[in-house]
From TrEMBL:
The organism of origin for this protein: Papio anubis (Olive baboon)
Stated name of the protein: trans-L-3-hydroxyproline dehydratase
GO terms assigned for molecular function: trans-L-3-hydroxyproline dehydratase activity
Similarity annotation: Belongs to the proline racemase family.
Pfam families reported for this sequence: Pro_racemase (PF05544)
Taxonomic lineage of the native organism: Eukaryota, Metazoa, Chordata, Craniata, Vertebrata
Subunit structure: Homodimer.
Keywords noted in UniProt: Lyase
Signal peptide: none
E.C. numbers: 4.2.1.77
């Protein structure tokens, strides 16, 4: 639970896929990921990033260099499996917006969905960028920990 200025207490997931990201449905921040202005999505995502950074310490088991939040990914909330792509926007680093669904972000989201029992091993899921419509697919292939 993160206290997000302007939005109150919001449940946020944090997952790692080569970098750490916070994940939250845009709807929980009062935004429709498909129709909202990119500026508004960036502002909301950045507010989440700053709130998580201020309220949580991120740990990485092997590398202190990787122990930081790289950004926030706003989603359409469709984490339960469907064949249709689930849409997201990745706002990372210094308020940069990825034109793709984000390799490390998709990897982190797959790990999160697998962890929640929403994806099975070798079940391919598709992810779409809300800004460009580009699609990545990915799947969890084995557990490491
Ligand atoms: O797709 C990726 O993982 C990279 N693109 C933006 C955020 C990461 O650096």
């Amino acid at each position: 639970m993160v206290d997000v200025p302007g939005h109150g207490k919001v449940v946020v997931d944090i997952a790692y896929g080569g970098a750490f990201y916070a994940f939250v449905s845009a709807e929980k921040l009062g935004l429709d990921i498909c129709s909202a202005k990119t500026r508004d999505l960036v502002d909301a995502a950045s507010t989440v990033t700053e709130a998580v950074k201020a309220q949580f310490k991120i740990n990485h088991p092997d590398s202190e260099d990787l122990a930081f939040l790289y950004g926030t990914i706003l989603t359409d909330g469709k984490d339960a499996y469907t064949k249709e792509p689930t849409t997201n926007i990745c706002v990372f680093a210094d308020e940069q917006v990825d034109r793709s669904p984000t390799g490390s972000g998709v990897t982190a989201r797959i790990a999160l969905q697998y962890h929640k029992g929403l994806l099975e091993l070798n079940q391919t899921r598709a992810f779409k960028s809300s800004t460009t419509g580009s699609v990545f697919t990915g799947k969890a292939v084995r557990e490491l920990l």
